[in-house]
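User: quick one, sequence for these tokens?
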């Protein structure tokens, strides 16, 4: 919706979607032979994974977070604040899409957006598919984007209502003081392992090691045969040089160092410090 469309109209859109989604869900549930199975299936279809909501795009994912953030601060101004930031969100999404295209063409210096990585590693979409989705979402009007947001919010409300006993309100894309990239997690595990004298590569192939890292990092994967196509497997082949730019690696090292220092893991801190020195010397 454009800026001329009021918050009142946006709220009416949510009510409309709420009623339509609820009606569709209850109609399908009424026809079902196995109510519990149908409940899980149709809640995904109508409430949490609606095909009319572009969940896989960076643009919409950022839009969701912005609205959630401002709605928590002041529900009365959340809509207007969100609309004001759409141009900036479009710029972010365009950059993420262009990075993905560059990576697809062989530019290994690119750090793919974490949201794209999550979609790929959970088997939701391939990189090519994500690029096509982002391109389509970027061409959508503000009205369509906010319409999708209204549908998403209506679905979330219904999901909460139909799961009162075990529903947990969660921010799907939290912004905390301490957030870590997958590559920072890989570095932390690498230095912890090395400081303890563990050499997993000595008796295991990289696929098994990558699967273990997926377990520790909480990153799902669909099949062992596909692990080689995922970022964790690739990064294990170059760790600790998980990025090509020393300045970025330096930042990652500086981010993880305090946690080892707080636990008095002296050997790990010394290893990190040596890597930091190498980054500093090579960047001069």
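Assistant:
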């Amino acid at each position: 919706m454009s800026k001329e469309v009021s918050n009142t109209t946006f709220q009416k859109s949510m009510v409309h979607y709420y009623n339509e989604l609820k009606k569709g869900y209850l109609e399908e549930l009424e026809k079902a032979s196995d109510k519990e199975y149908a409940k899980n299936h149709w809640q995904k279809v109508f409430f949490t994974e609606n095909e009319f909501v572009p969940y896989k795009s960076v643009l919409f994912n950022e839009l969701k977070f912005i609205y959630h953030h401002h709605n928590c601060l002041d529900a009365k101004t959340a809509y207007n604040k969100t609309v004001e930031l759409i141009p900036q969100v479009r710029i972010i999404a365009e950059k993420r899409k262009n990075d993905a295209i560059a990576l697809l063409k062989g530019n290994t210096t690119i750090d793919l957006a974490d949201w794209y990585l999550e979609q790929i590693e959970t088997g939701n979409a391939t990189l090519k598919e994500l690029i096509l989705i982002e391109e389509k979402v970027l061409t959508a009007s503000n009205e369509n984007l906010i319409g999708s947001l209204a549908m998403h919010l209506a679905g979330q409300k219904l999901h909460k209502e139909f799961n009162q006993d075990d529903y947990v309100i969660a921010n799907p894309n939290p912004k905390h003081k301490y957030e870590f990239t997958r590559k920072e997690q890989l570095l932390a595990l690498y230095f912890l392992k090395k400081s303890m004298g563990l050499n997993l590569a000595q008796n295991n192939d990289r696929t098994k090691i990558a699967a273990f890292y997926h377990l520790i990092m909480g990153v799902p994967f669909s099949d062992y045969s596909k692990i080689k196509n995922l970022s964790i497997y690739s990064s294990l082949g170059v760790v600790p040089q998980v990025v090509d730019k020393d300045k970025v690696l330096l930042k990652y090292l500086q981010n993880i160092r305090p946690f080892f220092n707080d636990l008095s893991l002296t050997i790990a801190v010394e290893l990190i410090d040596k890597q930091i020195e190498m980054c500093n010397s090579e960047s001069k």
